[in-house]
Amino acid sequence: MIEQDLNELENKSTYIIREGKLKFSKVAALWSMGKDSTTVLQLSRKAFMGKVPFPVIHIDNGIDFPETYEFRSSLRDEWDLELIVAKSEIKNELSGFSCCGENKTKALQEVMKQYGFEALIVSIRRDEHGIRAKERYFSPRNKEFKWNYKNQPLELWDNYASRLDEEGHYRIHPILDWNEIDIWRYIEREKIPVNPLYFSESGFRYRSLGCTHCTVPVQSDAANVGEIIAELRVTTSEEREGREQDKEKEYVMQKLRSLGYM
Amino acid sequence: MRLKRTALLGQKDHGKSTLLGSLLIETGAASQARIREARRASEQLGRKFEPAFILDSFSEEREDAMTVDTTRAQVPFGNMAFEFIDVPGHEELMSNMLSGASYADTALLLVSAAPSEGVTDQTKRHLFIAKLLGIDRLTVAVNKMDVADYSRHAFESVVDGLSGFLEKVGFDPSHVRFVPISAYNSQNLIRSSAFMPWYSGQPLMQTLMSLESSDITAGGGACLATVQGYIEGPRIISGRVLSGSVTRGEKVLLLPAGKQFSVGRIWVGGTERERTTPPESFALELLGDLPVDVEGSVICDLASPPPVGQVVIAIAFFLNPPTQHMELVSMGSSTGVKSMDFLEAIDPTTCNTVPGQSPQPLQAAIIRIALESPRVIVTSDKQRELGRFVLRDSAGLVAIAVVRDNWAPGRSQSSIT
Questions:
Q1: Which of A10, A63, A255, B270 is deepest in the core (most CB within 10 A)?
Q2: Is the pLDDT of residue B414 over 50?
């Protein structure tokens, strides 16, 4: 896994976050309490004089891990976050396509409508999945939250698209360039608090965090940030191996993303 | 580690995605899971293993064997790391190609040596655009040597067919390398190929490593920084340094307003600093009576301000026909276009010019634009980032362009820069 220059990444990401905040009047960040979205909150604090200048949304289906909820309240207090919890109701089978797709997307649609957000900061990275590698930094979604991946707006240099269609919104992806190992190196450098589920207990840890129903731990003895970095330097497995939604069948991620999933 | 960003250019079906897939496998950068997934997808479509499927992840891309949108993939090699940007080679997807290529420092062009393939108009268009985007180091991979019997003659006829055009576009022959390869069979990618004993040069990856990129060195020159807007009150602005440095306590000029301000506190990455240098993204206080709108402004030294004006002369590549309501966009800020004249149309596949004729999509032109309000106008050879812009209308992108200093009718147009 290639380790990139953290200052360069930080500079680019803070530039994108500021651009997002300045180009749209109502912006929010999605916060899953995972390592990536927490890193984006730290970058947002750095971009805006120490305080996250927009609300953070947790799409809560009620089945996240207890550690995740605890981490949510402690960091909310520590960083003085304006937290919006969007309750998502689980109506259908408890994993994968329809769970992530319908349940979470519906909850997000409702909260976006209620608050009138024009842009959402989302913490996806290119190295997570082949489909995510095709994303833009600023990516429009239509009224139904659909991603028109066949006709994405041009993104040349720093000229990001920001023209809003009626009732559509933009997804802003400030850490698209980062690799998994860069996130952990940055967490180490910045001493960013992380969910304890990432650290090994009895030989297992979570490498990628979803809800309790579709995330499984991977074998690992890495019990702190330094050990996770050392592990990533030699691993040959993929980050999202413990995520059910990615492996059900071909193109699940493509379908989920085109329908509005993060 | 700094990444060398390399755009893969070339005609559709000349093997860009296949090459990138093979490189990821050969260098061990693709995970076993990714390779298994690509193998399974190939089998499901009833094909032999397609290395391209490592990158082409959309179902449409696999079924139609055609890259639809850009992908980036990182390849570690020796003490370096490359980020390859795979772009669509299909003419209709030219805008996606541009989007990908705009992030590259250098380029790798693929040309098929297979009988009846070779250099096409699309190959030439990609070269024209690469040069326009400021790429001046080029590696040409002559691909599909397996289909051409690994013959020296086939390789040389591609080299001969392209050299004249490369010079016409403005590439310096000493910054161009040709390498014969077979992407599908992984020949001459990271090891010399036994099938091509007549080739004495280095394999592809070693060749890419040896071509120094023309990165503009950071830190030198007069102070230039762009402004995004106010991030806290009408006092603290954010932006990015393009050259020189901005130092606390010094006097700077804000353009196009043309007013002087003192620099107060400076923050980079949330930490207070005495100065900020390229390519840092900063927050800083300007002391004085600031304008209401600072978006798109430029901060510079008092001694050497760049010119401000309302007329821009540029060389542009058109993706769509120009319309009445366009705007010029550069460094994230836009200015309305009052009018546009075509001084000379250029055919990017020949570099020949036709005076006064308005260009069609996929054609280039020297244009003169009158802007609705003044902005800083810098030629691309003086400052690469400020010297380039896009033209767009309500439907999207119309053209990409780089600023030139002047134009004289009838001047011979030997190179696009």
A1: A10
A2: no
CATH for A6-178+249-258 (3.40.50.620, 3.30.70.980, 3.90.105.10, 3.30.870.10): 3.40.50.620
**Contact between B99 and A155 using a beta-carbon 8 Å cutoff:** yes
Which residue shows structure tokens 């802003």? A172
Query: What number of other Cβ atoms are within 10 A of residue B95's Cβ?
Result: 18
pLDDT of res. A77: 97
The alpha-carbon gap from B31 to the nearest alpha carbon of chain A, in Å, equals 6
Question: How many CA atoms lie within 13 Å of B358's alpha carbon, on the beta-carbon side?
Answer: 6
- Which chain B residues are closer than 8 Å to A48 by Cβ? 231-232
- Predicted complex ipTM: 0.85
Rounded to the nearest angstrom, the minimum Cα separation between A13 and chain B is 9
Model confidence over A189-213: pLDDT tens digits? Answer: 999 999 999 998 888 888 887 766 6
Mean pLDDT computed over B94-102: 77
Q: Is the pLDDT of residue B219 over 60?
A: no
B210 at A interface, C-beta within 8 A: no
pLDDT-wise least confident of A54-63, B25-34, B183-192: B25-34
B265: nearest Cα among B241, B290, B237, B285: B285
- What's the whole-number average pLDDT of chain A? 84
Cβ contact, residue pair A130, B34, below 8 Å: yes
Asked if residue A194 lies in contact with residue A187, where contact means CB atoms within 8 angstroms, the answer is yes
Region of poorest pLDDT, from B97-101, B204-208, B412-416: B412-416
Looking at CA atoms only, how far is residue A173 from chain B in angstroms? Answer: 15
Domain range list for chain A: 6-178+249-258, 196-246
Judge: B269–A46 Cβ closer than 8 Å, yes or no. Answer: yes
Of B32, B68, B396, the CB nearest to A154: B396
Interface touch A238/B33, C-beta < 8 Å: yes
Q: Which of B31, B34, B332 sits opposite A160 (nearest CB)?
A: B332
- Residues of chain B with Cβ-Cβ distance to A2 below 8 Å are 1, 3, 74, 76, 81
Q: How far apart are CA A166 and CA B223, in angstroms?
A: 41
Q: What Å distances lie between residue B112 and A24, A145, B9, B145, CA to CA? A: 46, 41, 12, 8
Lowest-pLDDT range, B42-51, B72-81, B156-165?
B42-51
What domains are defined for chain B? Answer: 3-210 (3.40.50.300), 224-300 (2.40.30.10), 308-404 (2.40.30.10)
Provide the number of CB pairs (under 8 Å) joining chain A to chain B. 141
**Nearest CA distance, A131 vs chain B (angstrom):** 6
> Is residue B307 classed exposed, middle or buried when 0-12, 13-18 and 19+ CB atoms within 10 A define those classes?
exposed
